[in-house]
Amino acid sequence: MEIEAMITLRLELPDDTDLDDLTLELDEEGRIQFMAAGEVVADGASIIDYSLDDVEEVEEDEYDDYDDEDEEQ
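^ thats the sequence. predicted structure below, dont judge the formating
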């Protein structure tokens, strides 16, 4: 089953982190990393709290529509 969900994270970052440049990435092993200025500024251990909201199952044909939209951009 594939789902779509909204996740809210609360985490600790270095004080000098540029929040406009902050991105979330997964490394090769599937671990979460927070990047800014091309460097890892936090990882999963930095997460203080989280919530999972608005969980919905994605139908196969819905997922195909997202792929088509991505290709058009």
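The longest strand covers residues 47-57.
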